[in-house]
Known about the structure:
Peptidoglycan synthesis regulatory factor (PBP3), Domain 2
Amino acid sequence: ANPHGLDAEGHYTSAFDLASLAREGLKYSLFRDVVTTKEMSIPWPGHTWERSLLNRNQLLNRYQGSRGVKTGYTSNAGCCLVGAAQRGDMKLITVVMNSYDMYGDTEKLLNYGFDNYEMESLEEVDQPRQIKVSGGTSKTISVKPERQLAVAVLPAEKDQLTLKTDLAEQVQAPVKKGSVLGKGTVLLNDKEIGQINYIAQEDVVKKPPFWVAFIDWFRSLF
C-alpha cells in the first residue's frame, strides 16, 4: 500500500478493508465532523480571500441520516464510495467499487440494510459482572462491556447470535479503573463477527500488610 491511495504496482485493497477503516475512523468525533462537513472556508496564504472547500459526496444531501464517508476514483478502480448512515440505533457502512452509479448502488445497499436488519442487544452496559479480587480492599470488582453491545442481524438470525465471554476468574490488586479484564466474542452461527473488551469500573487498591493495619489499630486506642 502507499499513503495516497493512487494506482501503483502491487497496491490493492478490498471492500472489507475500506469498511474496516471507515468503522475505525467513525469512532472519533473529529473524523465524523470532517466527513460530514459539506463546505468549509480556510485561509489561503498569498491571497486576500479565503479558499472554499466543497465536499463532493452527494450522499450527504440525498440520503436521510447520511454520515459520510469518502468518494474516490482512479482509471483502474473506477468510481468508488464508502458510505455510512444512521437511523435510530442502527449504523451501517457500505462500500461500492468500480460502480457506474455509486450513489444509487449505495442507496440500495443502505435501504436493504435498514429495511431488513434489526438491532439485537447481547448485553446491557448497566448490568455489570463481578470478578473476584485477591489482596485488595474490596473482594470483587465490577466489569462492563466498553460500549453497548448490539449487532445488526436479520430477524431469522437472532437465534444464531451468541456471546462468548472470557473474563478473568480472579485478579490481583491493585486494579485500575479502565483496565481490560476480559473480552467478549460475538458469534453468528458459530462464526466470529466481532469482539469487545470488558473494562474495570472502579479502582481497587492493594490491601495494606497486617502490621500496618495493626499499627493503625493500635494508634486508634490513644
